[in-house]
Amino acid sequence: MDDTLLRLRGLTKAYPGVVANDDVSFDIGASEIHALLGENGAGKSTLVKMIFGLVQPDKGEMVLEGKPYAPSKPSDARQSGVAMVFQHFSLFNALDVAENVALGMETPPPLRDLARQIREVSEAYGLPLDPRRTVGTLSAGERQRVEIIRCLLQEPRLLIMDEPTSVLTPQEVEILFQTLLKLKSEGTSILYISHKLEEIRTLCDEATILRLGKNVGTCTPRDVTARQMAEMMVGSSFAAPEVRGGEAGDVLLECRALELPAPGAFGTPLRELSLEVRSGEVLGIGGVAGNGQDELLSALSGERLAPAGAIWFKGEDISRKGPVARRALGVLSAPEERLGHAAAPNMSLTENAVLTAARRKELVSGGFIDWAAAKGFAEEVIARFDVRTPGPGVAARALSGGNLQKYVVGREILQDPSVLVVNQPTWGVDAAAAAAIRQALLDLAGQGAAIICISQDLDELMEVSDRFAALNEGRLSRAVPVAELDIEKIGLMMGGAHDMEVAHAAG
Amino acid sequence: MDPVLLVVSIMVSATPILLAAIGEMVVEKSGVLNLGVEGMMITGAVMGFAIAVGTGSPLLGFAGAAVAGAALSLCFGVLTQYLLSNQVATGLGLTLVGLGLSALIGSNYEGQRAPSLGRLDIPLLGDIPVLGRMLFSHDVMVYASLALVAAVWAFLRLTRAGLILRAVGEDHESAHALGYKVVRIRLAAIAFGGACAGLGGAYVSLVRVPQWTEGMTAGAGWIALAIVVFASWRALGVLIGAYLFGGVTVIQLNLQAAGTTLPVEILSMSPYLITILVLVIISARGVHGAPGSLGRSFHASS
């Protein structure tokens, strides 16, 4: 396209231990909806933070409408006509809509005029919103409208939207798309960040795909299939899964049409979710973040009780049993969020060991904690999983993310579970340690445990799983043996084709 | 009992708490919990007294007290905002430091008398019979404190700077994402709160008593803190709370002097009990509105 609005050249940003963006270059045309696509951790957020002035690039340059553009703070960006709608809204619950809008503007008019302008803009773009409402009382979709209107009032030339649909209902998504198309027709460019392929195909003119911080290609989403985009996003490089020998044993854990309402405003309900996992088997569950991964884990761990008859362990209904009872039976879990969920941040590693392993490792006798045994167990985890820490007396929060991850996963593995549910077991862990964790999971399966591995890392799932299923909006696809999978099937399972047969027929 | 004298003494007794509480309200609105109000008040009291005695000018004394309170509060600010120390512990420490420091500075001033702050008779209004003497014939600090309450209300409610301050207290992460300087705004609020507490302390040592005795603020700072909470962080609520407390204090003193049959202990307790009771009733109806980030440390991580 000739009339380029924003030109990015060689943007590089490194954080300690990770290069978030490596020599990223692309152009955003005027009146163009440009998609920025990539898996979690591909560097999308860092890139837009640089464009919005929240982070400064180490190297590289940006050119906005022919002029050098190097915002050192968000207000520079706003003055240059760049506005951003955040993924996690930057709103103030106790303030009303007009006050929230005023806070995001450089030179806001008096509040009374502003309220009138908000009404006008919200009507013009079909985003009804009452400026006097307190933001805390609004739904997620309405909150996003506040953010969008805040941006629109400044008449931006480039609007950045960071995963705008992740918290919206389908109806709200529809309204949002109409708004964005109207903006585009008025000459505003939009940088649209997402990893939802179908969304991008409907909405966007161009797409730039990031993988591990690098720009791996640009395409026109309408002209390519979801499969081609998924290939670029995931990289077709992942190793062909080898068929592992060994027969799967008896069914250990089974979900029968599990239904659970969403836990909160931003949660995902679980819908008719059925799965079974057998002794000696690893079931890999993929899917884009926020499609029910956390909810599935808490349903299986017992943090949230399921309706009777939904979850079975060795033929026993455990739906109404809490986490402690399930742990006693041998159903263990390691959640994704390390600090505050898997581990208590301010407690030592020994204390954290007692928290989940007290019963199975007999660390408590007669109501008293056997500290020697607890310390021994913590040291065993540290040694087996190469946790880099001065010792078991260190507080969990003092460990780096990767090291703590090794500790919380290792803590569960060493308790000899019959069923282990892990969510993102190697998130933020370096390659060597990740391989060790995966090997430990495989060894555990080899000893007859059933493992459910929820992850957003497809390479990882292909490596460890025997069967693969994908979560999409709280529904779980049929589990398919990994040996039968190819990149196209995975893309369709993840990208929202709820029923693979129908999708095949259509595509 | 002379009603004119009663109202006059209520206003005098309420002013120090009003000053300290309105300052602390601004601090808490910015998301910082400074429990050192008592320490800043007593420091203001001794510094104001020393400067007023030294220069002979009570107004200079008040100015010095404000500076001293602000300086002490900035120690708290640096510790909690830059070094991320715990706000509760640091605030309590500040109170202890203030009490000790003031005793040290004030030891030479025990028994001296402060130069008095003249009454400011407002022309015309001051000539109204009864009401004039009751309401319009006070020293300048009484009017200043009332003006300050109005100014704080208008600042928080009507100005953009006030909106930003509230936003920082509500959600410092969001405010940071929008590009506001969370730490700088909080330091300014902390300094303002310190200056107000200093003024309140100086009012005790220069007007209300007026002399220096060790520990003379006698818990006024703690009452100021409680009033901010029970006033649901609203300027009008702070005004009501401070005057209520001042009023009950004066009345119970008069009752004690009149020799009622009620035990003295119950009378002495009554200002605290009644103030808290009334403010609880007020705040039970409305929204509580504690700032969302109150007491939480902020560290810009990205």
- In CATH, the architecture of chain B is Orthogonal Bundle
The CATH architecture of the largest domain in chain A: 3-Layer(aba) Sandwich
How many β-strands of chain B, per DSSP? Answer: 2
Average pLDDT figure of chain B = 89
Organism (chain B): Salipiger pallidus
GO molecular function (chain B): transmembrane transporter activity
Keywords (chain B): Cell membrane, Membrane, Transmembrane, Transmembrane helix
InterPro entries (chain B): ABC_transp_permease
Summarize the structure.
By secondary structure, chain A is an alpha/beta fold. Chain A has helices at 44-51, 74-79, 97-103, 111-124, 140-152, 170-185, 197-203, 226-234, 293-301, 323-329, 349-357, 371-384, 401-413, 431-446, 458-464, 487-495, 500-506, and strands spanning 4-15, 18-29, 33-37, 59-64, 67-69, 82-85, 158-162, 189-194, 206-211, 214-219, 251-260, 270-278, 282-286, 311-313, 316-317, 331-334, 364-365, 368-369, 419-423, 450-454, 467-472, 475-476, 480-481. Chain B has a single domain, classed as Orthogonal Bundle (ABC transporter involved in vitamin B12 uptake, BtuC).
Task: Write up what this structure looks like.
The complex is a heterodimer of chains A (507) and B (302). Chain A has two domains: 4-234, Rossmann fold; 251-506, Rossmann fold, CATH 3.40.50. Chain A is built from 17 helices and 23 strands. Chain A has helices spanning 44-51, 74-79, 97-103, 111-124, 140-152, 170-185, 197-203, 226-234, 293-301, 323-329, 349-357, 371-384, 401-413, 431-446, 458-464, 487-495, 500-506; strands at residues 4-15, 18-29, 33-37, 59-64, 67-69, 82-85, 158-162, 189-194, 206-211, 214-219, 251-260, 270-278, 282-286, 311-313, 316-317, 331-334, 364-365, 368-369, 419-423, 450-454, 467-472, 475-476, 480-481. In chain A, helix 3 packs across helix 4 and helix 8 (226-234) crosses helix 16. The longest helix of chain A is centred in the middle third of the chain and has 16 residues, at 170-185. Chain B has helices at 3-29, 37-55, 58-82, 87-106, 131-135, 140-158, 160-170, 172-177, 182-208, 220-230, 235-258, 264-285; strands spanning 119-121, 137-139. In chain B, 72% of the residues lie in helices and 2% in strands. By secondary structure, chain B is mostly helical. Chain B has one domain (3-285): ABC transporter involved in vitamin B12 uptake, BtuC (Orthogonal Bundle). In chain B, helix 2 crosses helix 9. The termini of chain B are far apart. Classes of the chains: A alpha/beta (507), B mainly alpha (302).
